[in-house]
C-alpha cells in the first residue's frame, strides 16, 4: 500500500527523501503536541511538567535526583530546577537532601501529584487513541519500531 500522497508543503526538488521525512516528523509532532498541550492546560500543566510527574511516578518512593529527571525528559528543559520549583509550589512534588550524599537533592511525587496524574490518565489515553488509534495495532507497532531505529542512529 502506497502512502506517498503529497502534502501542500511538499514540492518537487525540495530536498532529499530524508529531509522530507524530517519535516514530516516535525509537522506530525507539532500537530499531536498541540492537542496534548490543550488538554494539559486544563490541568494547569505544561508538557515538561506532565512528563516530569510521570517520570517521578515511575520512579516510585525512592524518587530521583535532578540529573536523572533531566536525562529522562522527552524535551530537554535547560532549567529543570525552575520546573521543579513550580511543581513543588503546587504541592505536586517534594525535594529533600539525600542523607547519604548531601550534594544531591531527591525529588519525589506527592500524593497530590499522583492524584493529578490519575485524573489526567484517562483523558490522555482517549486523546492518544483518537489521534493514532485509526492506524491499528500492526501499523502502530511498525511505526514505533521504525522511530526507535531512526533514533538509534542519532545517539
Keywords, please?
155 residues; mainly alpha; 6 helices; 11% strand; globular
Architecture overview:
- It is a single chain.
- The chain has 155 residues and is mainly α.
- The protein is 61% helix and 11% strand.
- The protein contains 6 helices and 3 strands; from the N terminus they run ααβααββαα.
- The protein has helices spanning 17-41, 47-59, 66-72, 80-89, 111-132, 136-152, and strands spanning 64-65, 93-98, 101-109.
- It has a 3-stranded antiparallel β-sheet.
- Helix 1 (17-41) crosses helix 5.
- The two termini are 31 Å apart.
- The mean pLDDT is 89.
List the helices and strands and how they pair.
Elements: H1 17-41, H2 47-59, E1 64-65, H3 66-72, H4 80-89, E2 93-98, E3 101-109, H5 111-132, H6 136-152
Antiparallel strand pairs: 1-3, 2-3
Helix pairs in contact: 1-5
Query: What about the largest sheet?
Result: 3 strands, antiparallel
Helix % is 55-70%
What are the secondary-structure elements, in order, as H or E? HHEHHEEHH
Mean pLDDT over all positions:
89
Radius of gyration: 19 Å
**Which shape, going by the Cα principal axes?**
globular
**How many helix segments?**
6
Strand content: 5-15%
Q: Segments where pLDDT lies below 50 for 5+ residues?
A: none
Query: Which structural class is indicated by helix and strand composition?
Result: mainly alpha
Major sheet: arrangement of strands: 1-3-2
Number of strands: 3
Distance between the termini: 31 Å
